[in-house]
Specification:
elongated
Length: about 80
């Protein structure tokens, strides 16, 4: 669609330079800028709650270090 807009002279100059430097049209540069700005206003999709299944217990067993994956694998292999 064709429309007329009024832009600040410096902003228009910068947009034209950017269009020329990137090999795009001024229209494409302005469209992308509008899409980016309007896209930030969209509400993020709501996420469904994730329920983790837990089991009772007294925590990790003595000597288990969850930060030491090699030792943890050794303990699991022994079981």
């Amino acid at each position: 669609m064709r429309t007329t807009i009024w832009l600040d002279d410096d902003l228009l100059r910068e947009a034209k330079l950017h269009a020329a430097a990137t090999g795009r049209t001024l229209t494409a540069v302005i469209e992308d800028a509008l899409r980016e700005t309007l896209g930030r206003r969209r509400k993020p999709r709501s996420r469904s709650r994730l329920r983790l299944k837990t089991v009772g217990g007294s925590g990790t067993q003595p000597g288990v270090d969850l930060d030491d994956s090699a030792a943890l694998l050794d303990l699991m292999d022994r079981a």
